[in-house]
Amino acid sequence: MTVWNLGSINIDHVYRLDHLPRPGETLAATGHDQGLGGKGANQSVAAARAGATVRHLGALGPGADWVIARLQASGVATEGIRILPDSSSGHAIIMVDADAENAIVIHAGANRALDPDWLRGACAGIAAGDTLLIQNETSLQAEAARLAQEAGARVIYSAAPFDLDALREVLPHVSILALNEGEAEQLFAAMPGALPVAQMLITRGAKGAEFRDLRSGESLHQPAFPVTPVDTTGAGDCFAGYFAAALDGGESVAQALRLAAAAAALQVTRSGAGDAMPTRAEVEAFLKDRPDPA
């Protein structure tokens, strides 16, 4: 099976600060790094390092060859990435404080300049049993979800950044809706009652994660593994990528949750987003002889 990802690709500029700036406040950064980011790229790297066959679909502006090289080095197939000469690459300004909390500003750039005709060709290889990942940082999410659903693929939708209109459009074609705790609260407030989706994944940071089967009413809870965080940027993307890779590889939901929780625990002990995703070997070593946290 293959994990396809119509996903954002950003160049991350990470600034370390003693505290996050207040309105009107100017702060001097204590450090700066540049790296690979974007929810889509992060998830692709995580899924590839988890052992999945991953094909990324997306776009960059000129002069970003190092980004493609870094994706390829992580095992991501990049033939589906277009270079758009009239667009800038997506980028993010990420501020991380002394407690590893973050604030992020993104500019979509080429991520929002995708062409429907290109998408239909790019998605032509999606087959029954494959998995499509999508997020809210590109254009054409609903079109991609529909094409994947028609092909018989599993569609996992990370509804972030949260956008109710985008969610309503995509939801009829989604197999698993993935949100963090804050996004879930916004969704339940805006759409009370039964949701038109079969399954939900809700990540809750240090409180772990919950998987709900909305058809049967059953739910599974995966506690978080306690670690000392360095940088929480990309933790949810790490979880989603590992979770998708595990399901695509035929593992159970419970196995996928445990693997993803361990991967995210490792990822937050490192600086960066896409570049900080752990390998499957590292995650398995972390889990060896480690019981589930209470």
Automatic annotation (TrEMBL):
Gene Ontology cellular component annotations, sorted alphabetically: cytosol
Function, as annotated: Catalyzes the phosphorylation of ribose at O-5 in a reaction requiring ATP and magnesium. The resulting D-ribose-5-phosphate can then be used either for sythesis of nucleotides, histidine, and tryptophan, or as a component of the pentose phosphate pathway.
Subunit structure: Homodimer.
InterPro entries reported for this sequence: PfkB_dom, Ribo/fructo_kinase, Ribokinase, Ribokinase-like
Keyword list, A-Z: ATP-binding, Carbohydrate metabolism, Cytoplasm, Kinase, Magnesium, Metal-binding, Nucleotide-binding, Potassium, Transferase
Domain of life from the UniProt record: Bacteria
Species: Paracoccus siganidrum
Family statement: Belongs to the carbohydrate kinase PfkB family. Ribokinase subfamily.
Record-listed substrate binding positions: N10, I11, D12, G38, K39, G40, A41, N42, E137, D237
Main location: cytoplasm
Name assigned to this protein: Ribokinase
Cofactor(s) named in the record: Mg(2+)
